[in-house]
TrEMBL record:
InterPro entries: ChaC, GGCT-like, GGCT-like_sf. The keyword Glycoprotein does not apply. It holds the Pfam family ChaC. The keyword Lyase applies. Signal peptide: none annotated. Keywords: Lyase. It is an enzyme of class 4 (lyase). This is glutathione-specific gamma-glutamylcyclotransferase. Its EC number is 4.3.2.7. CDD domains: GGCT_like (cd06661). It comes from the Bacteria.
Length: 176
């Protein structure tokens, strides 16, 4: 069974599983957004950071990548992703259709934000996001590193994201 995973944030630069194929992909109905407070990987309970999540929004589109798990690793890949992504239950695991750059549509494992979860913080002004990201640190390192890696990989993929670009510039200035 072929297993695809939709990547839009850290999966772009740190999938953590054996990827057999990577294809540009678009997910309709969701926007990439720093709308999840991170209390494990990029922040703490007392000083939460922010991580990207897919926030459902009518007419929205998110450009990212579809990652095909290597044949025979699907079960292990799913177990790994669940351990990584469902650590606090703020993400919901969904099987959603994504459109590949080739025009083909595939069903992909996709992690979206639960808007009813306590860690959801959609709609924060960009300046507030920048202040949080510039200072938060969690178990996987500085929140700024997460932002910079994601922005850099989106740029390399040719994916424009004006909010992330602004945040990367602002956070770099705040940390200087």
């Amino acid at each position: 069974m072929t297993m695809w995973v939709f990547g839009y944030g850290s999966l772009l630069w740190n999938p953590g599983f054996e990827v057999a194929e990577e294809v540009s992909a678009t997910l309709s109905g969701y926007a990439r957004s720093f709308c999840m407070r991170s209390i494990h990987h990029r922040g703490t309970d007392t000083e939460p950071g922010l991580v990207l999540a897919l926030d459902e929004a009518e007419g929205a589109m998110c450009n990212g990548v579809a990652l095909r798990a290597a044949a025979g690793t699907e079960e292990a890949t799913l177990a790994y992703l669940r351990e990584r992504e469902l650590i606090s239950s703020a993400y919901l695991e969904r099987m959603l259709d994504v459109t590949l750059g080739t025009g083909q549509t595939v069903n992909a494992v996709t992690y979206v934000i639960d808007p009813d979860h306590v860690q959801y913080c959609g709609g924060l002004p960009l300046e507030e996001q920048a202040q949080i990201i510039a200072h938060a640190v969690g178990g996987r390192g500085p929140n700024s590193e997460y932002l910079f890696n994601t922005a850099e990989h989106l740029f390399k993929l040719g994916v424009a994201d004006s909010d992330l670009d602004w945040l990367a510039r602002r956070v770099a200035a705040l940390r200087a």
